[in-house]
Amino acid sequence: MIERDTLLRIFDIDLDAGKMFWRVAPRTHPRLAGTEAGSVRRSHSGKHYCVVKINGFAHKRGHLIFFLANGFWAKPCLDHINGNSLDDSRQNLRQATVLENCWNHKKRAKASPLPMGVRQLPDSARYQARIACRGKSITIGTFETPEEAHLAYLEKRGEFYGQFA
Question: How big is the chain by its Cα radius of gyration, in Å?
Answer without folding.
Answer: 21
